[in-house]
Amino acid sequence: MAPAPEAARGTPFGPRLHAVATYLKTFQALSYERLQATLSDLFGLTLSQGGLMNLLRRAQGRFRPGREAAISALRRAEVVASDETGVRIEGCNAYHWVFRSADAVVHQAAPTRAASVVRAMMNGHRPAVWLSDRYTAQQGHGLAHQTCLAHLSRDVAYAVEVSDDPVPWRLQLWLNAALALAGRATDLAAATLAAKRRSLERQLAAILATPSACDLARDLQAKIGRARDQLLVFLTHPGRVEATNNACERALRPAVIQRKVTNGYRAM
User: Fold this and answer.
1) Taking phi first (over 0 means left), then psi (-120 to 50 degrees means alpha), and beta for anything else, what does residue 29 get?
2) CA–CA separation, 188 vs 86, rounded Å?
3) CB distance 207 to 167 below 8 Å
4) Torsion over CA: 125, 130, 132, 135 (sign)
5) Which residue, among 174, 161, 243, has the nearest Cα to 208 in the 3D structure?
6) Is the pLDDT of residue 250 over 60?
7) What's the pLDDT at 263?
8) Partners of 224 in the beta sheet?
9) Distance from C-alpha of 5 to C-alpha of 104, rounded to nearest angstrom
């Protein structure tokens, strides 16, 4: 039997089809079923869902050099932020992580929400500041830590809504002042920032020491008290460290949309 010709050993689909399928599957969040129908309607192509998965796997290799460059930039960064969200992969609960620095955004799928994902991604690098929410697995990875004030603001806003205690209301005013200062930190002199930081710290100390009969208010005082040294780190690095982790949440949003549209991913 004659050997198969070289042209028969590869894929019959060219780079443009690979590019179109990758674009529709990722940026437009089409499911495999809808992607099948789209390629059939637009180009008259009949592809099995397994064939589509193989096509996307071949395209994946084209992105590897860019991903490696992004990871390398992340491992040199002085400021790194992280976040994660749940996702279904291969029919199981998993997590979609995002890591962000000034020069790179890296997405990572993982079967776990544990700190081991962060350690594997950073490969021993400890940036000057790590920015995240209060989840334990995202703590302790930088020399200093900035807690996302937006997450705390949501917790405080809930307490203000359901409680008549003055402590949540005072905490809300304090967080609003800190966020307002974050918006103009680069416009102020270092001495001015230091003075405003001392003032905010004195105000917070008074709020945390206020007696309260409300369980929710006391829980907030304890939670914010534990994060006390992580709330105003952004003032030490004006323009380089953000007060919220909203940028990571925006980076995760397309993945959340993909999850809602397609109910998850077929392969890690």
Assistant:
1) left
2) 39
3) yes
4) positive
5) 174
6) yes
7) 82
8) none
9) 43
- What would the two tokens of residue 42 be? 């637009």
C-alpha of 193 from chain center: 28
Neighbouring C-beta atoms of residue 148, cutoff 10 Å: 25
What is the model's pLDDT at position 8? 54
> What CA–CA distance (Å, rounded) separates 90 from 110?
12
Q: Do 160 and 140 belong together in one domain?
A: no
Instruction: Tell whether 45 and 57 lie within a shared domain.
Output: yes
- The DSSP call for residue 136 is G
Q: Indicate the number of domains in the chain.
A: 3
Inter-residue contact 60 to 268 (CB < 8 Å)? no
> What domain range is 47 assigned to?
14-64
Q: What percent of the chain has pLDDT over 90?
A: 79
- Examine the domain organization and report whether 162 and 228 are in the same domain: yes
Per the confidence metrics, is the pTM higher than 0.85?
A: yes
| pLDDT for residue 60 | 86
Pick the closest to residue 108 from 127, 125, 92, 122 (CA basis).
122
Q: Phi and psi dihedrals of 131, rounded to 5? A: -120, 125
Rounded to an integer, what distance in angstroms lies between the CA atom of residue 253 and that of residue 62? 24
Does 96 score more than 60 pLDDT?
Answer: yes
* More confident position, 47 or 4: 47
Query: Which tens digit of pLDDT belongs to each residue from 118-159?
Result: 999 999 999 999 999 999 999 999 999 999 999 999 999 999
Cα–Cα nearest to 221, from 140, 145, 165: 165
In this prediction, residue 10 carries a pLDDT of 65
d(CA 114, CA 137): 5
| 227 and 107 part of one domain | no
- For residue 8, is it within any domain? no
State the Cα–Cα distance between residues 11 and 58, nearest whole angstrom.
Answer: 9
Give the Cα separation of 11 and 55 in Å (integer). Answer: 8
In a domain, 107, yes or no: yes
